Amino acid sequence: MKIVWTIAVTLLLAACSSASSEVKDDAQPTAIMPAKGGGDLISEKGDVSGDGKPDVWNFYREQPDPKDPTVSKRVLFKKEADLNFDGRKDIVRLFDDEGLLTREEADLDYDGEIDQVNIYEKGVLAQKHIYRGNKQVFIWKFFEEGKMVRLNRDNSGNGRPDYCELWYAGEKLSKKGWDKTGNGECDYWENAD
């Protein structure tokens, strides 16, 4: 399942970045509303599956180039994709004004609910939140330079971590911790060895 999902995401995200080459006549870029500071918000649709329905959406801001205000540039600020072609958006990616990824929301089991949220700082993965069926975060993962350094997990379902892991350079588990007081902070630690 993970391999199929990875292949589908790769293909659709590649299509997101080149949706204009996949667009049909009814999917040409459309100005949808004025953007802050002037210019337009523009949407582009793409049909990767070939069924005549859009399954990739790109949203751009048309804004003055900071280096030359007499020139407008198109800046991507959101991408959406329907990975299993059921008409629902399964992945949403948000970008900053420099085109760097800031947030990604994914419905990994195609039930219409967000299962995972990834948060990026300067385009590098900083946090990953994994949700349970009750729309509550179950696992929090924290990253430095793209490598996991900490994992917090809510085993009790109360919305607060009660188990923690510290990782060395994202490769080796160094410590395990538990919340013995119920305050959401791990206060008892053991070496992983």
Number of helices: 2
Average pLDDT confidence is: 81
Give me the secondary-structure category. mainly beta
Oligomer: single chain
- Biggest sheet: strands, sense, closure? 13 strands, antiparallel
Report the strand count.
13
Strand order of the largest sheet: 1-2-3-4-5-6-7-8-9-10-11-12-13
Question: Hey, roughly how much beta strand do the residues contain?
Answer: over 45%
* Low-pLDDT segments: 1-38
Query: How many domain units?
Result: 2
The radius of gyration over CA amounts to: 20 Å
Task: Please tell me about this protein's structure.
This protein is mainly beta. It folds into 2 domains: 1-114, no CATH class; 121-193, no CATH class. Helices cover 10% and strands 48% of the residues. It contains 2 helices and 13 strands, in the order ααβββββββββββββ. It has helices at residues 2-17, 19-22, and strands spanning 30-34, 40-46, 56-65, 68-81, 91-95, 101-106, 116-121, 124-131, 137-144, 147-153, 163-168, 172-178, 188-191. Strands 1-2-3-4-5-6-7-8-9-10-11-12-13 form a 13-stranded antiparallel beta sheet. Strand 3 and strand 4 form a beta hairpin. It starts with a helix and ends with a strand. The relative contact order is 0.08. The model is unreliable at 1-38 (pLDDT under 50).
Please sum up the structure shown:
The chain has 193 residues and is mainly beta. 10% of the residues lie in helices and 48% in strands.
